[in-house]
Amino acid sequence: MFPQRLDSSLAYDIAKAMMDGFNRHYQLFRSESARAKHRFETADWHGQQRAQRERIEFYDLRVKECVMRLEKEFKAGAQPMDVWQQIKLHYIGLLVNHHQPELAETFFNSVTTKILHRTHFHNDFIFVRPAVSTEYIENDEPAARPTYRAYYPTRETLLATLVRIVDNFQLQHEFEDLSRDAAYVQEAISERLALVKLRANFQIQVLSSLFFRNKGAYVVGKIINGFVELPFALPILHNKQNQLVIDAVLFGEDELQALFSFARAYFMVDMEVPSAYVQFLRSLMPRKPRNEIYNALGLAKQGKTLFYRDFLYHLKHSSDKFRIAPGIKGMVMLVFDLPSFPYVFKLIKDYYPPQKDTTREQIKGKYLLVKQHDRVGRMADTLEYSEVAFQRERFEDGLIEEIRKFAPSQLEISDRDGDGHEEVIIKHLYIERRMIPLNIYLQEAFDAGLDEADARRQIERAVVEYGNAIKDLVAANIFPGDMLWKNFGITRNGKVVFYDYDEIEYLTDCNFRRVPVPHNEEEEMSGEVWYSVGPKDVFPETFGPFLLGNDAVREVFMKHHADLLDAAFWQGHKERIQAGHVHDVFPYERDKRFVRRHASHPIT
Ligand SMILES: Nc1ncnc2c1ncn2[C@@H]1O[C@H](COP(=O)(O)OP(=O)(O)OP(=O)(O)O)[C@@H](O)[C@H]1O
């Protein structure tokens, strides 16, 4: 198959046009990300959120543009296969000194598969694995910023070094008191280093671009001493007087994981060599898959590519079968998983019960809304795939039957690739992180018996976190719609996250009402809803019977979250959002905030 000679000049022109298409994409993506700094400095929060939303669309737009150009200028789709092989080889040549080769390869795949369609293309024409290494890429241009900077403080110069680290970002806005904040950070670091001997290599490494998201900017780095590396992040916020403050210091893998969680919006970061950022971040969070790090940086297509490669690799090295996911089955989504793999696969059913007045398009719209919205750590991100092929023998028969019954339009079983093995091909799928459904988590505690202190603690933690999750969603203008326990999951770190999006609405589109007082005994005794209800009307006081059947659950809920049953709570938030308020989201515990920690003992 490998071409002996590169003799088609058209192949070179097509490869070059594709590379131009990618370069244009990355330049636009990067400048939008770089502008986040100015929006942060000028407290343009609506602008920041808009940009976060719009940037998600960039990739598909650029792919479409490039496909059109290739068809128009080169009739690319009509070129014979040997030309396509040469296109790929020329493209590899163009990648050799490129600073984002892995992204450019993915762009090539997107454009090529659009032009050649599934029936024509062969894996040889795309990048099934990377052809060009991303190791040790450096930007050698004279004014280039390195990926990270290293600082070499002593115990005595630590404070001055911390000030310098922040100063080097040249934020064009004044701090309330940078030396005070740096002293708070120094104190926190010194506590960790108190009993430690500083080794010759003691240093602080800091990624040279800030990470922007919503109302925050984050310094991300690590402290190295001997063989120990301590990841850290410094959130910088505007205070009430609109001056900058370092709000906290986060340490260690778990706190960084929470910052980079799959349930949060993507960061804006100005990066020349994204793979070097990913490599650095991976050293801070070794258990976080690379695909999720690319996602967190807004490079979702690369995340998707890497996820799929990891998935295929996992399939090759496992033998268990796909099955219907544990828990209560969805009415609109058919959910399955592979026990050995920490994700779930969701497809939209063809048929749903009458109370679900929705359509496939509407459901897709809700999933898209979540993708573009700030997920505030409370909504799982999803990857969307079309035409996914699995080996038939890896599917339990019961699962095939379930798909055949509820989503026949999504299922094809055939030997499409002609390798003599049957495949299950699913037309459209969402994939997201697997969690423990909250109803199962609570049931485990009930089963253990409420006399057990651990079980009671488990219930308390779950119910308190559940209410907190809803309150975070509310602050972010999201009404979850269906708030039953089964629609929330618990993550590895004990966070409660929402995953059932088909009834989600903007809070500002809902009408929160109290149940009217009955006019007469007949109305009062009627088991039916006797008052008129509009399509967007919500009656929070009616949530109780669905959620609080269990006494232990009820007790905790009423202690911490009784306000969720009050229409005034919801209406109040709606009005604040309508008045233009942009909520604060803290991807860390509130008691980490310096304003709380040092309220009574300010450092002087
Ligand atoms: N990320 C996940 N991790 C673990 N289990 C999940 C996940 N997402 C869904 N499930 C399981 O699949 C079930 C159905 O999923 P989901 O709630 O998304 O479907 P649905 O059809 O929208 O539900 P509903 O009938 O409440 O509208 C859940 O109750 C849960 O048991």
From TrEMBL:
Q: Isocitrate dehydrogenase kinase/phosphatase (AceK) regulatory domain: which residues?
A: 15-319
Membrane-spanning parts? none
EC annotation?
A: 2.7.11.5, 3.1.3.-
What's the name of the protein? Isocitrate dehydrogenase kinase/phosphatase
Isocitrate dehydrogenase kinase/phosphatase (AceK) kinase domain: from which residue to which, for each copy?
320-589
Q: Which UniProt keywords apply?
A: ATP-binding, Cytoplasm, Glyoxylate bypass, Hydrolase, Kinase, Nucleotide-binding, Protein phosphatase, Serine/threonine-protein kinase, Transferase, Tricarboxylic acid cycle
**Residues that bind ATP:** A325, P326, G327, I328, K329, G330, M331, K346
Family membership noted in the UniProt record: Belongs to the AceK family.
Q: Name one GO molecular function term.
A: hydrolase activity
Where found in the cell?
Cytoplasm
The catalytic activity, as recorded, is: L-seryl-[isocitrate dehydrogenase] + ATP = O-phospho-L-seryl-[isocitrate dehydrogenase] + ADP + H(+)
The protein's job, in short, is: Bifunctional enzyme which can phosphorylate or dephosphorylate isocitrate dehydrogenase (IDH) on a specific serine residue. This is a regulatory mechanism which enables bacteria to bypass the Krebs cycle via the glyoxylate shunt in response to the source of carbon. When bacteria are grown on glucose, IDH is fully active and unphosphorylated, but when grown on acetate or ethanol, the activity of IDH declines drastically concomitant with its phosphorylation.
Q: Which InterPro entries match?
A: AceK_kinase, AceK_regulatory, Isocitrate_DH_AceK
Active site at D381
- What organism is this sequence from? Polaromonas jejuensis
